[in-house]
Specification:
Strand content of chain A: over 45%
Number of helices of chain B: 0
Low-confidence stretches of chain B: none
Number of helices of chain A: 0
Number of strands of chain B: 11
Oligomer: heterodimer
Low-confidence stretches of chain A: none
Strand content of chain B: over 45%
Chain lengths: 108, 113
């Protein structure tokens, strides 16, 4: 069964305290792994696409990496404005499979 | 990336009624998707709507309950029919091509009394 699992469900960090979010998947026919940020009352906002193991993408304080079975979203020196729910999705040829998300709260 | 507008942004409806949600894109796209997101939950795909063909529904979703129209390459509607409190959710539309990122509207927040 195709599945995407994210951990932890929730994460509280102090401003400046770096950490990582995990997304593991069992999806056959992987066409890409996608990270999104979702703020309350908004739709998911696209962050990164990763297509092959070993690939890395960076944007400001965020860095996404991919292995054959999981992806990590590393957050370096986070700020309160990084607080949001981070969703990962795995795409096969036909559709996306979303994880349940990690709710990140960064305290000043 | 495409800009996606959904209407209405929120609504409160009576049990047994139907509501049609509109999704407008600022550019022509082949594939449009409709998702449901229940409070605190992740996104569940309802159906894929390609212009010129019937929508493809996921397991657990049926056309009689969630009829979809896709009259052209920039517009789609999702109707939630004969609503019950269990249909209270956020409904999201997205666009994307196979293997490419999907881009989302801000959703329609639906409450059923």
């Amino acid at each position: 069964e195709d599945q995407v699992t994210q951990s932890p469900e929730a994460l509280r960090l102090q401003e400046g305290e770096s950490s990582s979010l995990n997304c593991s998947y069992t999806v056959s026919g992987l066409r890409g792994l996608f990270w999104y940020r979702q703020d309350p009352g908004k739709g998911p906002e696209f962050l990164f696409t990763l297509y092959s193991a070993g690939e890395e993408k960076e944007k400001e304080r965020l860095k996404a990496t991919l292995t054959k079975k999981e992806s990590f979203l590393h957050i370096t020196a986070p700020k309160p404005e990084d607080s949001a729910t981070y969703l990962c999705a795995v795409g096969d040829f036909n559709k996306f499979y979303f994880g349940s998300g990690t709710k990140l709260n960064v305290k000043p | 990336s495409a800009v996606i507008s959904q209407k209405p942004s929120r609504d409160i409806c009576q049990r047994g009624t139907s509501l049609t949600i509109q999704c407008q894109v600022d550019s022509q796209v082949t594939m449009m998707f409709w998702y449901r997101q229940q409070p605190g939950q992740s996104l569940t795909l309802i159906a894929t709507a390609n212009q010129g063909s019937e929508a493809t529904y996921e397991s657990g979703f049926v056309i009689d309950k969630f009829p979809i129209s896709r009259p052209n390459l920039t517009f789609s509607t999702l109707t939630v029919s004969n609503m019950s409190p269990e249909d209270s959710s956020i409904y999201l539309c997205s666009v994307g091509s196979r293997g490419e990122p999907q881009h989302f509207g801000d959703g329609t927040r639906l409450s059923i009394l």
